[in-house]
Amino acid sequence: MFSIYGVNGQLFRGRLEEVMRAPGVLRVRGARAVARDGVEFGVEPPAAGNPATDLAVGAYQAAQHEDLERGPLYRAVQIMARDVIVLAAADKVDLAWRVLLENRIHQAPVLDAGQRLVGIVSERDLLTTLNVEKGMVRDVLARQVGDVMTSPVVSADPETDIRRIARIMLERDVDGVPIVDERQVLVGFVSRSDILGAVVTNPPLSLWR
Predict the structure, then answer these.
(1) Domains of the chain in sequence order
(2) pLDDT at residue 132 above 80?
């Protein structure tokens, strides 16, 4: 389940398909598969009857069965970062830039005075008001984070399927999704790197549940 939050609080709550049609949520062109002669790379079936191929497939199936017994990953709460770096809407943009730089992150959720999610701010947003030279801020317009942040912002529940979060990232061309619980409290953040990390670590990411 997804929600949309803005400066006036929760604006919408619904399923993935409904979020895509919600006012203020722009849909961008999704990624297309690279194909060769009508066949997508990575999905061409292996030749049957080859002993080496049969052995490899058998080993893969055995490993996959073992992985599933350990329990697959498929919910946001299982992979989200819990210690989330946040900014306040009232913070000055130069402070926000330093926070992102010092924590080596490219974006951060933005909270209002009541600690409610109201937006997200990225390096690109901040650079509209900053002049940075050799990593140092030189010229700063008198702006607050709330003036340059992206709002409204789509968030997901902790129990949301990881694949649906990945689709939101692709559809909206964003690098992360805040995770907000039923009390409308920010409890985590899922980034592209979190999803990629889930793909290559154990227990495995469930892609076909």
Answers:
(1) 2-23+75-200 (3.10.580.10)
(2) no
